[in-house]
Structure formats: C-alpha cells, structure tokens
Amino acid sequence: MSFSGRVKEELGKQVSQARHCQLAEFAALFLLCGKVRRGSRGKISLEIHTENLTVAQKSYMLLKMAFDTSIEIRIRNHSLKSYTPAYYLVIRNQAAVMQILKAVKLLDESESRWGDFSGIPYRLVQNTCCKRAYLRGVFMAAGSVTNPKKGYHLEIAVSSASFCRQLQEIVVSFGIEAKIVERKKYYVLYVKEGSLIVDFLNVMEAHLALMEFENIRILKDVRNSVNRQVNCETANINKTVTAAARQIEDIQYIERRKGFRQLNDGLREIAELRLDYPDSSLTELGQMLSKPLGKSGVNHRLRKLSDIAVRMREQKELFPDPKEDERS
Fold first, then answer.
1. pTM of the shown model
2. Domain span holding position 192
C-alpha cells in the first residue's frame, strides 16, 4: 500500500465522538462523492459513489453513527478489464434523506430552499475540531501525499475554484501555508514543505503517518547534512591538493632555471620543505620551519615563490635562452 493509502486508512479509523464533527466530516465526503437523485415519482434519494473502499467504509460509519438509517450498498465493476470496483451507498428513506440534507446544510429547515452544492457550509466548521474533521473528509475523498522517501508534496484536487479557496482559508487558519494551482479541469490546493505537511497530518490527526513521515524526514535531513559536510571537505581537500601541485610546479621551475641560491633564507627553506612534504598542509609546513610561522605567513612565502616563477616565465617568453632551445 502506498504512503497516501496508509494515511487514508488511518483517517478512516479516526472517528470523532461529537456529532457536530461527524456531520462536518460527512458533509465533506458527500460534497465530493455524493449526489442527490430525484426519481420518477418525485422522491429524492442520496447516493455516495467512490472507488476508494476506505471512503465508502467511512461514509457508511458516519451515516450509521449520526443518523442510524438504513443504507443500500452496491458494488460494481464498470469494465471487464478493470479490477477496481466502484462502491455505491444509497439512502432511499425520505425522512432520513431530508434529515441528512438539513444536517449538512444543503436544505433549509422549511425544505424549500437548497444550499450551495459547491461551497463549504461555514456553520458546520465554526469549531476548530469540526475544521479538523472537515479536512479529514476532504483529504480522504480528494487528497494525496507523496511518499516522503521520494519527496514532499501533499495536495487536494477539486473541481470548484471557490471551494478550493475556502479550503485554503481553513488550512491557513491552522498556520499552514497552502497554495493553489489550476491543473487541467481541477483546482489543486498543495503544500510542498516537509514541516508543513507534518502540521497538516497533525491537524487531520493522522498521528501514525505523522511519525513515519517525521522519521523519514529526519533521516533524510541527517543524510543530506552529512553529504554536504563530506562534499565540503572533499572540495577543500581538492583545493589544497591543486594549490600544492601548483606550488611544487613553480618551485621546481625556479630550481631548474636558477636554483635556490638566489632566494633568501626564508623562501629557500619553505621551497625545500614544500618539495620534501608535498602532502602537508600550510599549518604543518609552518611548524617545520626553523622559526615556526602560522598558516598566513607560510602562504605569503609560497605566493612570493609563485610570483618569482611567473616573472621568470614571462622573461623566458621575451628573451628565450638559445642554449635551452638547442638542448630541446
């Protein structure tokens, strides 16, 4: 099972004892998976259609707990090639239908005015606990979250722009920054930062998934930190080796062209040490001197040697040695 599936499975087992929270969660599920159907004789029935067994089970559980009504269950395969069944929950009892529609604020008490089928009924989500329950329902019906081993991405895809913006308001009320992007015919509310996804899971009370996500995230952060440190140290080593190779090349050039006799004692000593200890750091070379120097002092002398080598090369280009040309 995918990480997203495990999150939904955990949410499916998370049932609020308060009826107002049960109504909020069912309202979210019904808004995204439900339909109101009118029969030939004017009778109204409610239908919940989903291909997610967890959503079907949760919807059934909430209907039983909040309304204790009879529910017709149908399972269909729409294609012989498809192994994914579709689940249908149907409520036909007229009294129960009216009670449910009023409870989720899709019908007023006089049964004469219908509510907004593409918006969030704010009377159901005034309490913080009800907002949590509503987000649970929305995520189960239309959400997904990437396995944290692969990346950090949580999203909820809905068909209504206004509904998506209302969802964003609820998510932001918990201090979670969520953005909206339009993707084909859907409006997608998404969160990409790992710590914010952890907060989102906490809001929905998916605590087991939260701990799994956090464990993976911490492990990745430690691994990335170690990799950065190793890369930094490797870069420093490469830089040191390259600098030492260049210094040795300059010193050997001076030795071949003029020898060390024309160098002062300090430059001659550091030149000989660098040739004898090519792998030593500047600090280590400084400690080997007859009069120890710090890293900056050693670096200053080596730069002087490099400047001498540069001037000698320039002089050679201007006034080539005919004897050397004959030897070559």
1. 0.70
2. 3-205
